[in-house]
Amino acid sequence: MAQLLQHLINGLAAGTIYALVALGYTMVYGVLKLINFAHGDVMMVGVYMGYATAFALGRQTQKTFLGVVLIFLVAMGGCALLGFLIERFAYRPLREKPRLTALITAIGISFALSYGFQLDIGFLPGAAPRAFPEIIQPTEWLVIGDRDVVVWNWQVMSLLIAVGLMVGLQWLVFKTRFGRAMRAVSYDHRVAALMGIPTDRVIAVTFMIGSGLAAGAGLLYAIKDTSVSPLMGLYVGLKAFVAAVIGGIGHVPGAVVGALLLGLVEEFVVGYAASTWRDAVAFGILILVLLVKPGGLFGRVAAEKV
Amino acid sequence: MSEAVKTLGEREPRPPLLTVEGLKVHYGAIQALKGVVLSVGKGEVVALIGANGAGKTSTLRAVSGMLKPSAGRITLAGQDITGMKAHLLVPRGMAHAPEGRGIFPNLTVQENLDLGAYLRSDTAEIAADQEKSFKLFPVLRERRKQLAGTLSGGEQQMLAIARALLSRPQLLLLDEPSLGLAPQVTETIFRTLREVNAAGMSILLVEQNAHLALSMAHYGYVLETGEVVMAGNGKALLESPEVRKAYLGE
Amino acid sequence: METSSVPTPSPGGLPPALRGILPVLIAVPVLLLFDRLLASAPFATYLLSIMGVNVILAVSLNIVNGMTGQFSIGHAGFMAVGAYVAGVLSLSFKETALSFLPVAASDQVFLVVALLAGGAAAALCGFLVGLPSLRLRGDYLAIVTLGFGEIIRVVVQNTDAFGRALGLSGIPQTSSLAMVGFWVFLVVLVARRIAYSSHGRSLWAIREDEVAAEAMGVDTTGYKVRAFVVSAFFAGIAGGLFAHFVPIINPGSFTFVKSMEIVVMVVLGGLGSTTGAIVAAVFLTLLPEALRSAFTVMGAEGSLAQKVDQIRMPVYGLLLVALMLLRPQGLFGMKEIWEVLPRWLPRRRKGLA
């Protein structure tokens, strides 16, 4: 019983991190109808930015409250900028081209980032994973019985952050003028422009928000894993994508539910079956969902716009 | 170019609001517009008629910034707006209710209307304008909380026009407002258009229904394969044998 | 809709069946000759074999990515299925020989059987992966194929019979240039036939506008799945061949990187152009080798020559982006080399002709 509870907690904690990354996918898909393949890799770059900042701050400062805030700010701001640049120079020129061109571009960027960061030339970090500093000292937030069930502080933190951001995004999308513009752009950006909506700016800002979120999520992931590597983006990104699809891509709460579900299933597979199968689980679920309910749990089947 | 245009009847002199000269538009290798020349005066209703594929929609799109013209010059209230992006033209007084109504079905009626006033910040005035549009189209008030996609065709057209009016335009571009609508609904919509025109708004109207368009318009242009081939005041065009033969089915 | 392939009219007067085989009849002796000539040059043989395998992979991926507008990025997964199935089969029949045949011939029979089994297994996987395309748009399918590749990797790493992470070694090295060349010809032939059949025209229709194609009565789903099956089959064959001329196969040979390499070949050659895929596959196989030797000859430190492999991958990524921005149609667009080349060459003056 205690073991089950512990798995439940670990699974939810892992799921919240997927959720944060999945929100970025879903937002960008919402406005652009583009699966931003490079999303996970942007996240990875953000983690390295955080890593570099922590390094620059030094052992003492990086653990202070201000230090941690600075690390998150640098990573999230840097990623927002990176997202902006990618959108501006790689996706925007292709907006009126066939969808396949943008998809191939996204795949290309993903590949360039994840393998570019494996080089050890100049500032690039090289392929080997690096230990991510313990900027947040892991402490036990709640202990039940004789350490039967342990809840860590970072688990609670990431859950709170994920739920908070989800609520915030729902509010942004459905209650604000910008959100209205986003939804209009999502349906038809040409008609949205006729309302005076600066569509390019709306799309760019959406990209920046999504990329910033990803950086935050990536840092939480790195803190949990205590490591950072060039390929982390590919894997976390793919799983987050799977989560977004499970929930119904473009659907904000769906992405969170899908992510929590995926986190739980993975945790139970590792706990009760074999850890080596973990990476296959996400894709197995993906293929299953797509076969049975292609629109995801909450989405409608996305019939292609003619 | 202009020598080839046959002109019928007198045009009431007005200060120009929109002028289009030598407008050309290409879709890839296909040339959709081959040098369209037209103008709309302040407070004038101008109709653009022609067969399918004559270039009516392309003309509207180029004027409102949805399309980038490959050549030509467009001015609005004396300022060159050629090639300017659509969202920059809205604050200059351009409103375009596009082909196929262009409402946002995934947003509520209220949200659609709010988007019409996207660039305005005068809350009180917006509310007053919205009241006015509810007076023009009472059905929209009843449906304001509904998703726009659930409206009937006529209601969607009303929404599209009401939304366009909420930006307080000087010039309203309308693309086929009568398409697929029942006669009574069309009647309501055209009555409304007369009212807003009487209040001073200029309208550039594209219509398949040439009779409807020309009987309302002060002036009209006939478009054929991307060129203006005939122009004249609404009445004169309606009475011209060529127009009657080609577009009124007589 | 039935698959009944419409017999192509034969202007040459030859019966269609014979016309199909004719290139093969010419090719096989030529290849055998090559094989003999290069017998004393193992590296050249190896490089040409890799090139052949890459051509098979690129041409077969082009059937899906180029001709239907679907986008698979898990081609290495099918290659892995073929390699492992064929490899395991060959390993288990290593000691067996057909007594009524000379040893070399018996080896080749076993090789072909193993290849076909690998191809069939890959084709089955292609069917399973193609199924989601029943209801999905291209971009989802891209992720599904990627996921499939990952699943294959995980399965291999967890299966003793496949040697887990260590891989399989000791597979009989029975592949030859002639065998590789034979399959290259076959895949090109099949790709051409598909492109010019009514089936091919349906695939083009799907690529251009799926909704419209469906409205016109094209059974888009059936064609997409079939394209996937054929494409996967040849990827499986390529994997099988690969397994029979490299000393060891392990999950590392069939990662996302390999899939991307094939994608880059197809995109560079021009989505939909078979000859484009071939040219790009040859070029991208030779380029790293050429760079490596160039660096070595120039006397650069060994590290630079080694870095070629490392730098290759991010360059592929950037190449994709650059191509999409500057020349999305690739080298040849959807055309074939003989349709494009004359326009590139300086036009002859009328008086001279």
How would you sum up this structure, described in words?
The complex is a heterotrimer of chains A (306), B (250) and C (353). With 306 residues, chain A is mainly alpha-helical. Chain A has one domain (2-292): Orthogonal Bundle (ABC transporter involved in vitamin B12 uptake, BtuC), CATH 1.10.3470. Chain A contains 11 helices and 4 strands; from the N terminus they run ααααβββααααβααα. Chain A has a two-stranded antiparallel sheet with strand order 1-4. In chain A, β2 and β3 form a beta hairpin. Chain A is globular and about 65 Å long. The relative contact order of chain A is 0.20. Chain B has 250 residues and is α/β, with parallel strands linked by helices. Chain B has one domain (14-247): Rossmann fold (3-Layer(aba) Sandwich). Chain B contains 10 helices and 11 strands. Chain B has helices spanning 56-64, 86-89, 109-116, 123-136, 138-142, 153-165, 183-198, 210-216, 234-239, 241-247, and strands spanning 6-8, 16-27, 30-41, 45-50, 71-76, 79-80, 94-97, 171-175, 202-207, 219-224, 227-233. Chain B has a 7-stranded mixed beta sheet, with helices on both faces. In chain B, strands 3-2-5-6 form a 4-stranded antiparallel beta sheet, covered by helices on one side. In chain B, α3 packs parallel to α6. The longest helix of chain B has 16 residues, at 183-198. The relative contact order of chain B is 0.21. Chain C has 353 residues and is mainly α. The longest helix of chain C is centred in the N-terminal third of the chain and has 28 residues, at 103-130. Chain C has a two-stranded antiparallel ribbon. The radius of gyration of chain C is 21 Å and the shape is globular. Chains in contact: A-B, A-C. The interface between A and C is large, with 48 and 46 residues.
What topology emerges from the helices and strands here?
The complex is a heterotrimer of chains A (306), B (250) and C (353).
Chain A: H1 2-32, H2 39-61, H3 65-91, H4 99-116, E1 130-131, E2 140-144, E3 149-152, H5 153-175, H6 177-187, H7 189-194, H8 199-225, E4 227-228, H9 232-247, H10 252-272, H11 278-292
Antiparallel strand pairs in A: 1-4, 2-3
Helix pairs in contact in A: 1-5, 1-8, 1-9, 1-10, 2-3, 2-4, 2-8, 2-9, 3-8, 5-6, 6-8, 9-10, 9-11, 10-11
Chain B: E1 6-8, E2 16-27, E3 30-41, E4 45-50, H1 56-64, E5 71-76, E6 79-80, H2 86-89, E7 94-97, H3 109-116, H4 123-136, H5 138-142, H6 153-165, E8 171-175, H7 183-198, E9 202-207, H8 210-216, E10 219-224, E11 227-233, H9 234-239, H10 241-247
Parallel strand pairs in B: 1-11, 4-9, 4-10, 7-8, 8-9
Antiparallel strand pairs in B: 2-3, 2-5, 5-6, 10-11
Helix pairs in contact in B: 3-6
Chain C: H1 16-37, H2 42-65, H3 75-92, H4 103-130, H5 138-157, E1 168-169, H6 177-196, H7 198-208, H8 210-215, H9 220-243, E2 248-249, H10 256-269, H11 274-297, H12 302-326, H13 337-344
Antiparallel strand pairs in C: 1-2
Helix pairs in contact in C: 1-6, 2-6, 2-9, 2-10, 2-11, 3-4, 3-5, 3-9, 4-9, 6-7, 6-9, 7-9, 10-11, 10-12, 11-12
